[in-house]
Amino acid sequence: MVAIGALGLTGLGLADLLRVRAMATQAGRPMGHKSVILLFLEGGASQLETFDPKPDAPSEIRSPLGAIPTRLAGLQFGSLFPKMAQLTSKMAVVHSFTHSDGDHGGAAHWVKTGHPWPPPFFGQSGLRIPQLVPSIGSVVARAKGPIHPREGVPTYVSMRSVNGYEGDDAAWLGPANNPFRLGKIGSNPMLADMTVKLPRERLDDRVALRQRLDALQRVGETSGVTASMDDFEKQAMSVVLGKSRQAFDLSREDAGLRERYGPGLGQDLLLARRLCEAGVGFVTVNNSIDSKDIDGWDHHKDIVPSCRIMCPLVDHAVSVFIEDLFARGLDKDVLLIITGEFGRTPRMNAKAGRDHWAAVSPLILVGGGLRMGQVIGKSDAHAVYPDARPVTPQDLMATCFHVLGIDQRFEVHDRQGRPIPMIYSDGQPISELI
Known about the structure:
The chain is of the alpha/beta class. It is built from eleven helices and 16 strands. Helix 3 runs parallel beside helix 11. The longest helix is centred in the last third of the chain and has 25 residues, at 303-327. 52% of the residues are buried.
């Protein structure tokens, strides 16, 4: 069984638990069958080693890994994506996804919120201010209500961030709209104390659960975060003990299908599919590897051996997910987005790697009831800049809103009560998909 991070509340500040229930009743409405999964390639995957390989470019530009044909005429993928290459009729591949922030934190903030971060203080990327704008998932939680009013599942779930880049949280929308976190615990010191560490057979022990809830309440009271969580106890129990818990339990899946998905990312995507079926509206799957030998997708050196590790994992897990999605008829209801915070420099560096490059980033969309089997936009001959049809993070956010049925003019209020539009006038759903 997949461990649930914190009574389903690891992303929620205790002071907001009572508010969550009220919001779910007053503002929330069922998500229906529309959901978005963001597969975020933490560290920034290279466009040249993934979905825009430029095999005719000079040797210092093109990928040493080579290119392979896909099912779409004229489209080639990096050679480590043979399974996904056979499924391009079920994808929309964007070759012109672009922004201008080459810092990990700022770029992740831009892609995950649709809004840029200010430049680092004095040009130092390590001196960062907190997240400024709510994530797309948090905006969805605000628009729909953070808890599904019928199913009891969270509207917004985030999985496995290794690097902890900014962009997943609710900012001034308040912790009630933070994600329900699965996987690595973040920087909030309360989260370690909020983790339910009970074996499955004890989860039905209401006495033990009550003791744990009481302990959580004492943690909240002594930290000054909340005075009481009793009025929200039923909702908490529904996440841990009730119907909504079943969505998090991969043991309920067919063993053969679980094996087919494979470990790691495969299980994450299988869980994401289950969560969407249960009513979750937005799932972020942060993909990386926490290892001394490889820094996720941040390939400043030795990009070829690093990609030989990372790319096949994505190729397999995503291809199985796509086949499963279409076999179940969920391609009309669930949108999968694959991207990272930026791409990589077209020219190899002296360490046989590629550095940060935001002007062209990998982007693939699958499902969501959108038009598949096409390439959108074009990068120039060396994948340096968009050559046609630039697509921005605002456009991606607007496309998510379109799929989820959220008004493009949707506004949220900041701490001063000022209305803030989430989509600027120049942000539009990607028209080729509609």
